[in-house]
Amino acid sequence: MNMTRATMKQNLIAGEWLDGAEAVPNLNPADLSDVIGEYAHASVEQVNDAVAAANAALPAWANASPQVRSDLLEAVAAEIFARKDEIGTILAREEGKTLAEAIGETARAAQIFRFFAGEAIRVAGDAIASVRPDVDVDVVREPVGVVGMITPWNFPIAIPAWKIAPALAYGNTVVFKPADLTPGSAHLLAEILHKAGVPAGVFNLVMGRGSLVGQAIVDHPGVNAITFTGSVPVGRNMAVDAARGMKKLQMEMGGKNPMVIMDDAEMDIAVSTVLNGAFFSTGQRCTASSRIIVQAGIHDAFVERLAAEMQALTVGNPLDVATQIGPVVSEGQLNGNLGYVDLARSEGAEVIGGERLNRDNEGFFQAPAMFVGATNQMRSSREEIFGPCASIIKVADFDEALSVSNDTEFGLSSGICTSSLKYAREFKRRSQAGMVMVNLPTAGVDYHVPFGGRKGSSYGSREQGRYAAEFYTTVKTAYSFAG
Ligand SMILES: NC(=O)C1=CN([C@@H]2O[C@H](COP(=O)(O)OP(=O)(O)OC[C@H]3O[C@@H](n4cnc5c(N)ncnc54)[C@H](OP(=O)(O)O)[C@@H]3O)[C@@H](O)[C@H]2O)C=CC1
Ligand SMILES: O=C(O)CCC(=O)C(=O)O
After folding, report:
1. Which ipTM was obtained for this model?
2. d(Cα 305, Cα 106) in Å, to the nearest integer?
3. 248 touches ligand 2 (CB under 6 Å)
């Protein structure tokens, strides 16, 4: 590999760009001959330095005027917007989603920074009458402190944006570890924050493996709060470690999201909703529809239409404009997906699609898959696959559809396609999920409203929108007696 130190992307610690303990090349999952860059993995000592810098920078940033914080976030938003094609191209190359999806995600990151530029100047409290005479009670929101952030590879700029923007808006300082598979978009975001003038130590980037760099952040006594998005197993262990250190914690994890198709659904809407929700972004969305629960009367016609349209999807290089489905993010993830395809078959489902596809330069391509005739008891219908695979489960009526849809350890997103107001209303009320969609895909959410789930999918308060303040601020109740 013809790489020089000059191309290496460094960590940002205390306002300085620094080499790490080792430099690791990152490859394009669609084309293994494409080396996107060489990224510096931070050492544990560097994590300690980043936490120290974040603590040192905290008092000044927490007391900076809201206008200063707002201006910074606005500048970051403007720069991301201006460079969205360039950033989107790196994102598509490192993660594998299509260029259109990658540019769309980048624009969404910019919108998130712009939204929190506004929120920074809207931090409000309460003046509450005391039960005692001549006593005033003020309830104010203050920053939580140093926030450690650990993010996954599947939304490598939007998820960091929806953690970093509110953290900075509310006066916190940040130590951020992006996913090892997708450091490129995170590094560009760090460059933009630095260029926009984020004070030294207020924002720190430490790249590297979760087991080392991520764990060092979670275990560090100088970190006050942890926000994590990723898998359930990693999240479970992290929760124990964070609780041991008495840290505030927010976690968004997996899903096995149901999409109910009722007999009275509009067929075009049902098919396009499932194509998008189950297979776009290669199914690599925690909000992806992975259990399609179909009422008996529409089942066969729906399956026939969906199979035809799924098989017509163009799988290929994300940089080709004709591509609708890019590669799986890594060989490990691809092998996991293929294992679930075999499992579904062995459990008795009829598998349509799902095979590995050979393309130039040994990319990790897989045909989207439907597991027809699945039951909700099959492991392939219960465990998160995180790939372009959906179980198709036939049910008799609305009550069975609702019961199957809630019969899962997860509770992130759910949906129903129906033309009945009664079913739509009942589903919205009784679905055990944090986000419920009617005639819309389970994935693809707005950037300014709460995001998060229930049961095994989430822990702690919501991300995004004004609800993010719950995590990124702590409430102080101040009493005063004028004498
Ligand atoms: N609910 C939600 O909002 C979302 C949930 N997800 C979930 O994320 C998963 C896919 O993402 P994936 O990146 O594979 O998830 P992982 O849980 O494997 O990794 C997530 C992040 O945690 C890091 N990490 C791993 N081990 C540790 C550790 N011991 N201590 C601290 N950090 C650690 C990873 O580092 P490393 O760089 O080494 O991988 C990565 O940065 C899916 O299960 C998906 O459902 C994804 C997006 C959104
Ligand atoms: O569905 C979305 O828009 C975002 C969901 C997300 O963050 C994810 O799937 O990882």
Report:
1. 0.94
2. 33
3. no
Structural element, H or E, at residue 210: none
Determine whether the shortest distance from the Cβ of 285 to ligand 2 is under 6 A.
yes
Q: What is the pLDDT of residue 4?
A: 40
Cβ of 216 below 6 Å from ligand 1: no
Pairwise CA distance, residues 457 & 412, whole Å: 6
- Residue at token pair 């179909």: 294
What's the pLDDT at 2? 39
pLDDT score of 3: 40
Rounded CA gap, 391 and 292, in Å? Answer: 6
If one residue of 445, 446, 447 were mutated to test the ligand 2 pocket, choosing by the most ligand atoms within 8 A of its CB, it would be 445
Contact 193 CB / ligand 2 (< 6 Å): no
Task: Report DSSP letters for 250-297, one per residue.
Answer: EEE----EEEEE-TTS-HHHHHHHHIIIIIGGGG--TT-EEEEEEEHH
Cα–ligand 1 centroid distance for 428 (angstroms)? 29
List pLDDT tens digits, range 223-240: 999 999 999 999 999 999
C-alpha of residue 136 to centroid of ligand 2, in Å: 43
The angle subtended at Cα 478 by Cα 474 and Cα 483, nearest 5°, is: 175
Share of the chain above pLDDT 70, in %: 98
Ligand nearest the Cα atom of residue 452 = 1
Quickly tell me which residue has 């392939």 as its tokens: 380
Distance in angstroms (rounded) separating the CA atoms of residues 163 and 226: 10
| Mean predicted confidence (pLDDT) in 288-307 | 98
